[in-house]
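Sequence, please.
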């Protein structure tokens, strides 16, 4: 079988040196059910709780509504400020 076809047939052999930094970050955010800020490439900020994610997209929940956001549109993701954080203490 041609190695170039393997990925299209669903039998992908990942090199042992592949490091995935997204999954542990997303698993932790989902487990904690913390509010996060998702900054899009367009500059828009989305806020919500991470409910699901896969290789290509994440699902945010905000006010009972779920929103699918494709990862290629995301510039960055950060946990929202918690109670007692320096951002909250400003008057």
């Amino acid at each position: 079988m041609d190695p170039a076809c393997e990925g299209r047939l669903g039998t992908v052999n990942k090199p042992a040196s592949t490091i995935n930094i997204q999954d542990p970050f997303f698993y932790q955010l989902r487990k904690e059910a913390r509010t996060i800020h998702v900054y899009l490439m367009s500059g828009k900020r989305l806020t919500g709780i991470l409910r699901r994610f896969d290789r290509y997209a994440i699902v945010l929940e905000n006010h009972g509504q779920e929103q699918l956001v494709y990862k290629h549109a995301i510039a960055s993701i950060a946990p929202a400020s918690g109670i007692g954080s320096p951002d909250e203490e400003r008057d």
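The CA atoms of residues 3 and 12 lie 9 Å apart.
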